Amino acid sequence: MKIKIVGGGLAGCEAAFYLLKKGFHVDLYEMRPLVFSPAHRTSKLCELVCSNSLKSISLHTGQGLLKEEMRILDSLVLYAAERSKVPAGESLSVDRGIFQENIEKILFSFPKFNLINQEITDLSENSIIATGPLTSSKLSQAIINTTGKENFHFFDAISPIISGESINMKKAFFGTRYGKGSPDFINCPLSKEEYISFHKELVDAKTVILKEFEKRELFNSCLPIEEIARSGIDSMRFGPLRPVGLTNDVFGKSYAVVQLRKENIEGDSYNIVGFQTNLKYPEQNRVFQLIPALENCEFIRYGAMHRNNYLDSPKLLSSFGNLLKNPSIFFAGQIIGVEGYMESAASGIVAAINISRFMRKECLIDFPKNTIIGALMKYVSQENNNFQPMNANFGLFPSDSIKYKDKSQRKDAIVMNSLKNVREYVKLLEV
Ligand SMILES: Cc1cc2nc3c(=O)[nH]c(=O)nc-3n(C[C@H](O)[C@H](O)[C@H](O)COP(=O)(O)OP(=O)(O)OC[C@H]3O[C@@H](n4cnc5c(N)ncnc54)[C@H](O)[C@@H]3O)c2cc1C
Q1: Do the Cβ atoms of 265 and 299 come closer than 8 Å?
Q2: 3-state helix, strand, coil in the chain (%, to 5)
Q3: What's the pLDDT tens digit per position in 199-247?
Q4: For residue 347, is pLDDT > 90?
């Protein structure tokens, strides 16, 4: 049986490896070197477009747990990365050239692997689409024709997400503007002095240098908070930090108020409303912690603004990664709304498992929810009116009823349970 994979990036190569091991013929379509995205530079498979870091290996981080789950799933990307690693402390960083060579050597060792350098411009049956955040414009158009324009995004403008327990509630209060609706927002007031010093640090903070193609198109719809701040000392007070309708018994009338919106039902993570930003990650830590209630806040995901094609997956995809409308078409990688190299690769394994079962007319099996990969797949497929890409983090796990001594003990329990669940899942697939 033959399966078509479109896109020879992290997700596409990982999916190809799984299917080849299962005995399928794989035609992998990659448009490079005939057509290049604005960020890719090489003609080899599995190019790391930016950093050479695949992030932390510590099991007490979402990234570390993700890697261990992928190890159990016999991940190609993890295998190739560990054989091309360069010293980088607690993170897995690679020599990108050797990494790409390792990937190609393994894939080309399968006689049923066929690489076709061609830009695909249409969706077709029995395929995995893994064309990433910079999907070519012709294929983007074909996807839009199937999904509708409103369900295919071109840019990311994301505000940081912080952990609920790291908010200093002695310096914040629950409530909505003018008391309308349920008081789900957390409001973080600032005095005049605090606001002025926050404004100064924000306008002076170091930002990420945008690529030309991003500069051209990005700011049309949505300004980063630092740009709003630069446009005048009071602009933020008339924008996302406006204090009107947020007077409180304890804090009285505030000069400015930062609002936090619940990011999940459990309320253990919060989005800083209107804080889409291009600040470098350490600068987000430094500057946003000047907001009194956020003085010790822990970032689950940093804010970002960049070109990123992704589907409104909760509306379009099942938890197996295929189109609800056309179940023989699967999607994988960043295009489904996961964020990051390893997350993209992991979703390639999920799509490959399911398309292989689909082709063999076997029932599709959900990835166990109590794992980091399962939690990510749940995130991308469950209802969400404000769907934005997500990386692997412990905030994806629902808070549980068990009381732990501390965060570290909770993480140990999550890790043990996740790895056990992935092992059981792999056994189930082998039956
Ligand atoms: C500029 C930029 C920088 C990033 N930096 C990082 C980072 O430092 N760390 C991190 O963890 N994540 C980063 N990401 C996010 C993301 O993790 C990576 O983009 C990751 O490579 C996504 O994997 P993927 O397999 O989904 O897509 P990709 O790795 O991009 O693979 C998609 C492949 O599909 C091909 N393709 C596209 N359209 C077609 C078509 N029509 N026909 C045939 N082939 C096609 C492309 O040429 C490409 O090879 C970055 C993203 C961008 C855009």
Answers
A1: no
A2: 40, 20, 40
A3: 999 999 999 877 766 665 565 557 899 999 999 999 999 999 999 999 8
A4: yes
Question: How does pLDDT run across 67-89, given as a tens digit for each residue?
Answer: 999 999 999 999 999 999 988 88
Over residues 289-320, the pLDDT tens digits come to 999 999 999 998 899 888 889 999 999 999 99
Q: Is 30 in the pocket of ligand 1 (CB under 6 A)?
A: yes
Please give the number of the atom of ligand 1 that sits closest to the Cα of 139.
41
CA distances from 225 to 170, 179, 230, 347, 386 (A): 25, 25, 9, 32, 19
**Mean pLDDT rounded to a whole number for the chain:** 92
Q: Rounded to the nearest whole angstrom, what is the distance from the C-alpha of residue 359 to the centroid of ligand 1?
A: 26
Identity (one letter) of the amino acid at 396?
Answer: L
Ligand 1 mutation pick, 103, 134, 331, 388, max ligand atoms within 8 A of CB: 134
Predicted confidence at residue 87, as pLDDT, reads: 85
Predicted TM-score (pTM) of this structure: 0.84
List of domains in the chain: 2-156+306-430 (3.50.50.60), 161-302 (2.40.30.260)
pLDDT of residue 306: 80
Q: Whose CA is nearest to atom 12 of ligand 1?
A: 340
Spatial contact of 153 and 309, defined as CB atoms under 8 Å apart = yes
**What gap in Å lies between CA 68 and CA 72, rounded to an integer?**
7
Is the C-beta atom of 356 inside 6 A of ligand 1?
no
Q: How far is the CA of 334 from the centre of ligand 1 (A)?
A: 7
The answer to whether residues 320 and 364 touch, using CB atoms and an 8 Å cutoff, is yes
Atom from ligand 1 closest to the CA of residue 29: 43
| Pocket-testing residue among 4, 29, 45, 49, ligand 1, by greatest number of atoms within 8 A of Cβ | 49
Please measure the distance between the N-terminal and C-terminal CA atoms of the chain and give it in whole angstroms: 20
Mean pLDDT of 62-68: 97
CA 11 to the chain's CA centroid: 13
Q: Would you call 269 helix, strand, or coil by DSSP?
A: strand
Distances (CA, A) of 356 to 180, 209, 225, 352: 50, 41, 45, 6
